[in-house]
Design a protein that fits this description.
The protein is of the alpha/beta class. The protein contains 14 helices and 17 strands.
């Protein structure tokens, strides 16, 4: 049992309850036993003094490509398509060892940024690369994060009019069989699951229509969720109009890819009709403002998405298209992006925190167990330290968290189990993860030179 008290609490419950001086009690079952104003009742367990801190639900990362930690800092001035064409040949040399090291570094860094649940979108499976999905699952266990890896796929190579080189795509049947095997082997449907799989063909310009529609059928037969990239750039829009004669959203609709079991990465280039369709079908969006800015892809219409009741979560996106990969910083970036488009009323600090927590839980289908601090929910919590030089003097602690610099994580719990304490990983060593990531990067780059 852990009792956090003398602390500000942003619950992100349905009425956005906020306690300037409150408490959270975590039970032995790894779930929240109590939350409220004032001190906690006397009782057993570890007592944490939250003076100078704010406790929020753990942040949920809804879009990432962890393997990209091994290829950061390349093609830094390119568009998405130019960046992909530079990186595809390098990614074609990935193996389980490189992916495991990259995922360890990426997940360790995410934990230190206040993330307690992350998805991963892995779609590159070189033939002689070993079991890369298993490697990243092992990395998540090592760091201690709740993990939603997706079995991604690409089956539309250059010879068939796609963007990726032919040697890094799978056949449609290979991709579908491997995806079904991944679900059977790894997916845990239980409410407290630490590991869930989703089905994630990569994008309209790297996947055939047959793989998109059969992947949707597979996911629905297995009761798992669906994810893909959609409406990220103008180039993608042009590709869809030329090849399919419609917008990316119309393409997704045609293939059975709108629904409350689907969340889409980016959703930058959505017209009014597309936003209406996403809202009406409950299709979620993983908003990745820093990645969109880094690639100059545009700014998602988050205010309009929220006004149409679209579930919107935050994502750092792959570490090679957004080298910072810091989920805590995405709260501020999301707010800035919305306000740059729509003025100061476009998004407030509470809404930004909701995107990073409850919005993410809805995208991953975990809203009954994650995303808010309420009795009975899983105790995935972050205690942010806000009395240091960067934040001291900002009385509104939620404003300090969202508008201030990246806040140190005093304590992060996943299912009541500490994964970060006083800014350090509990189960892994950050220095070791960094050294392993450097070795993986060098090994990979040597293979392509
Ligand atoms: Zn992505």
């Amino acid at each position: 049992m852990i009792v956090i008290e003398n602390v500000a609490v942003a619950t992100v419950d349905a009425s956005d309850s906020y306690h300037a001086d409150g408490h959270v009690v975590v039970g032995d079952d790894g779930r929240i036993a109590a939350v409220g104003a004032g001190p906690a009742a006397e009782g057993e367990g570890r007592r944490v003094d939250g003076a100078g801190c704010l406790v929020t639900p753990g942040l949920i990362n809804t879009h990432h490509h962890l393997y990209q930690w091994a290829t950061r800092g390349l093609a830094v001035d390119e568009t998405l398509f130019g960046w992909l064409k530079t990186l595809y040949p390098i990614w074609g040399r990935l193996d389980a060892e490189v992916v495991g090291a990259a995922a360890g570094a990426g997940l360790g860094w995410l934990a230190l940024s206040g993330c307690t649940t992350s998805m991963d979108h892995h779609y590159v499976f070189p033939r002689d690369g070993g079991d890369v999905l298993e490697a990243e699952i092992e990395a998540a266990r090592r760091v201690g994060l709740r993990f939603h890896p997706t079995r991604g796929s690409m089956d539309l190579g250059q010879k068939d009019g796609g963007l990726p080189p032919d040697n890094i795509v799978e056949s449609t049947d290979e991709a579908l069989i491997a995806t079904e095997n991944a679900i059977d082997r790894w997916h845990d449907p239980s409410p407290g699951a630490m590991l869930q799989i989703a089905v994630a063909p990569c994008s309209p310009f790297s996947v055939t229509e047959r793989l998109m529609s059969e992947a949707a059928e597979l996911a629905r037969r297995k009761g798992v969720r669906l994810h893909t990239h959609l409406a990220e750039t103008d180039d993608e829009e042009d590709f869809c109009r030329e090849r399919f004669g419609c917008t990316p959203t119309e393409y997704a609709e045609r293939l059975g890819w709108l629904g409350d079991d689907v969340w889409l990465a980016h959703g930058v280039h959505l017209d009014d009709s597309a936003i209406t369709k996403l809202g009406a079908t409950g299709t979620g969006v993983a908003h990745c403002p820093s990645s969109n800015a880094r690639l100059g892809a545009g700014a998602a219409r988050v205010r309009e998405l929220l006004d149409h009741r679209v579930p919107v979560g935050l994502g750092v996106d792959g570490s090679a298209s957004q080298e910072a990969s810091h989920l805590g910083e995405e709260l501020r970036q999301a707010l800035y992006t919305a306000r740059t488009r729509g003025g100061p009323g476009a998004l407030n600090a509470r809404e930004a925190l909701r995107l990073g927590t409850m919005g993410g839980a809805r995208c991953l289908g975990r809203q009954d167990d994650l995303g808010s601090i309420e009795a009975g929910k899983l105790a995935d919590l972050v205690l942010w330290r806000l009395d240091g030089l960067g934040h001291a003097g900002i009385d509104d602690r939620l404003a300090a968290l969202v508008f201030g610099p990246a806040a140190p994580v005093e304590l992060a719990l996943v299912g009541g189990r500490p994964v970060v304490e006083r800014g350090e990983l509990v189960h892994a060593d950050a220095g070791t993860l960094a050294r392993e990531a450097v070795r993986a990067h060098r090994r990979l780059m040597e293979r392509v030179t």
